[in-house]
Amino acid sequence: MSDIIRIAIQKSGRLSEDSLRLLKECGIRFDNGAGKLKTTATNFPAEILFLRDDDIPGYVEDGVAHLGIVGQNVSEETDRDVDTIYNLGFSKCRLSIGIPRATGYQGIQDLQDKKIATSYPRILSKYLKSNGVNAEIHEISGSVEIAPGIGLADAICDIVSSGSTLLSNGLKEVEVVMRSEAVMIAYKQMTEGQRAILNQLIFRIDSVQAAKNNKYILLNCPTESVDAITKLIPGAKSPSVMPLAIEGWCSLHSVISESDFWENIEKIKQAGAQGILVIPIERMVL
Ligand SMILES: Nc1ncnc2c1ncn2[C@@H]1O[C@H](COP(=O)(O)OP(=O)(O)OP(=O)(O)O)[C@@H](O)[C@H]1O
Ligand SMILES: O=P(O)(O)OC[C@H]1O[C@H](OP(=O)(O)OP(=O)(O)O)[C@H](O)[C@@H]1O
Ligand SMILES: [Mg+2]
């Protein structure tokens, strides 16, 4: 049988939509109709498994799935023997300790001998230990933020993103235990054929990510401004410069990084650019 890789993604939850989108942006086509737990890609040697996220690292450790997309928090908590091969940049959040808003807090020693509710007992216990704090960890699987309000615990350790769940449950964030984002994890003993498929997939993810991190920029500028603008947006090699119908003016095309877009765009304007257009890039192969 020719090689195929099995990719495990979350069936439904915070990671599902972005995981599906990533695979589709990589040009992998498959039918993911409601209720389907396994599907075969029609144009790439892959099967997609739809699972609970907590189960994904175990499946990848055993080689039942060869790749999986999970949060770093889940990967670390489950502590399976897998390779983390790609930081995917979505589902960014932090795992934090929260306490009731009215409770005073001087520092982590205030958690000594307290009871902390969490779905992440392993990560929390490591964190407390490394800070020399001894506390009772009470494991619950969800709705963790409710615990202090119903007298179940003094504090919680759970995922925080906007902070609105903490806020609406009368809690405040006092310690960041870890920062997390979605990662791709891999089975350690893939065949050579599977590794070749993985390399193809990584090449595609690279080009999708590069495209997301950059924008195509077109502008008009006086010819004498070309050098100054080229220094700000050199592009992969150098910008394309074309003469305009008006003497002394040209059109300059390049690539600008998303991360310093606003800072750079100001400088580009100051250097003499006019009529600036910024366009999303679909794919970028460097
Ligand atoms: N509010 C958030 N903002 C950003 N990322 C988040 C947020 N909440 C969770 N995540 C990330 O998404 C992952 C999945 O979260 P989700 O709430 O869907 O998990 P779950 O309820 O355990 O799902 P499952 O039913 O698959 O076990 C988390 O492990 C974390 O990495
Ligand atoms: O800081 P915030 O933006 O409020 O996000 C944090 C919340 O998001 C997650 O829960 P989710 O909404 O996914 O529900 P769940 O408990 O069913 O996983 C997490 O468990 C927190 O409760
Ligand atoms: Mg889960």
Automatic annotation (TrEMBL):
EC number: 2.4.2.17
Domain ATP phosphoribosyltransferase catalytic: from-to ranges: 52-206
Keywords: Amino-acid biosynthesis, ATP-binding, Cytoplasm, Glycosyltransferase, Histidine biosynthesis, Magnesium, Metal-binding, Nucleotide-binding, Transferase
Activity control, per UniProt: Feedback inhibited by histidine.
PROSITE patterns, A to Z: ATP_P_PHORIBOSYLTR
Family matches, as InterPro entries: ATP-PRT_HisG_long, ATP_PRibTrfase_cat, ATP_PRibTrfase_CS, ATP_PRibTrfase_HisG, HisG_C, N-reg_PII-like_a/b, N-reg_PII/ATP_PRibTrfase_C
Compartments (UniProt record): Cytoplasm
One Pfam family from the record: HisG
Functional pathway: Amino-acid biosynthesis; L-histidine biosynthesis; L-histidine from 5-phospho-alpha-D-ribose 1-diphosphate: step 1/9
Catalytic activity: 1-(5-phospho-beta-D-ribosyl)-ATP + diphosphate = 5-phospho-alpha-D-ribose 1-diphosphate + ATP
Taxonomic superkingdom: Bacteria
Location of the Histidine biosynthesis HisG C-terminal domain: 211-283
GO molecular function: glycosyltransferase activity
Cofactors, names only: Mg(2+)
EC supergroup of this enzyme: transferase
Similarity section: Belongs to the ATP phosphoribosyltransferase family. Long subfamily.
Function: Catalyzes the condensation of ATP and 5-phosphoribose 1-diphosphate to form N'-(5'-phosphoribosyl)-ATP (PR-ATP). Has a crucial role in the pathway because the rate of histidine biosynthesis seems to be controlled primarily by regulation of HisG enzymatic activity.
Record-linked NCBIfam families: hisG, HisG_C-term
The protein's name: ATP phosphoribosyltransferase
Chain's gene name: hisG
